[in-house]
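[PROTEIN RECORD]
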Amino acid sequence: MSRVSKPYEIVERALELSTTDGLVVIADEHSSANLRWAGNALTTNGVTRGRTLTVIATVDGAEGTASGVVSRSAVTADDLEPLVRAAEAAAQGAGPAEDAQPLVSGVPSSPDFTDAPAETGSEVFADFAPALGDAFARARSGGRELYGFANHELTSTYLGTSTGLRLRHDQPTGTLELNAKSPDRTRSAWAGRSTRDFKDVDPAAMDAELAQRLRWAERRIDLPAGRYETLLPPTAVADLLIYQLWSSTARDAVEGRTVFSQPGGGTRLGETLAPLPLTLRSDPHAPGLESAPFVIAHSSGDSASVFDNGLPLAPTDWIRDGKLERLTTTRHSAALTGLPVAPAIDNLVLDGGGERSLEEMVAATTGRALLLTCLWYIREVDPATLLLTGLTRDGVYLVEDGQVVGEVNNFRFNESPVDLLSRASEAGRTEKTLPREWGDWFTRAAMPALRIPDFNMSSVSQGV
């Protein structure tokens, strides 16, 4: 058995060992490479490798089908039988699973299922690292210090089932965060990028953006809490709408627990949420944001079911031309609610038809407005309205008649993303962005900047 070591062999052997009615095996082969820097100098770098195996056993009984899930890392061939037996024991000891469905079948096998896993390494930074070094030199000469990190992960997922599925997906995920500080640490600015391969990120351009923001911050203006016209950059829009997507399960809406519940019963599907022609969508094949084209569920929850593993995913409009079009469903919750099957997809795009960049939206501003850098510490206050609270971070700037005139204090905000969509007066050009708050969990997003006439800055914050 010790010769069984390749990911697809691990999957096949686990399936052979099964004695229950159904089995799903997910082998995730992970590799990552990272760089970290502080004070205009690299501090650490590293490369890691790992494997995680998830076994999902199902047992049919008189009262329904039960499931048992066991996941372990660093699995070798000798670990397989104990792992499969543990999953089977968990299923036999569990009650019927509420989300039980027949395991998915009939999906064509991935032609590369038996190929070796894709891997990343330090070579992913071959062009990026020298460009970063040049940015360090420019920052030193300009009297600022750069801090941050670059991380690249590549996960090859092998999914096999007792119903014959043999699927494979390679997922690259890259993030770059760059923070510039004045030497006395009184001024700070942040920029982030999401990338698949670090070939489309430009440290020089990011450093120039941060240098400009530090210059803006040389003048400090204190403002009170209140409602302000506010320009939300793509990263902030992404953080808000990702949380909205996570809160858009159909079952919760039907049961009257969310902002998408219709008073008196039912859902708000078909209702106009935004006067602008906004379309919020997910597509596993979206260029530059590609994600798994089939369901990969390591556990069951409100928006995922282990029984749906391998279910093909299709482009889905959650909001189309301002109207609520879909809520997320598993096969089980779709049957409960009578709504179409619409599983979650690991990317999110907002299109609003706008052509202006954020800079052009700033220049077009008349009167006073606030320009945000990003949001953080976002928490839910009221699920019935999806009211969120959080803080601004790393730069809030005052715009007067198309010009940035200085930096203002940070704020705590209280807003619902659903309500913001109804009040947005302009959407800019959609572009790839890195969510600041949710970037550890959700990186594949493309958003426009949004102009909100009356964003609620509920209190002044001492945050930075």
Notes: The longest strand covers residues 41-61. The chain has a mean pLDDT of 96.
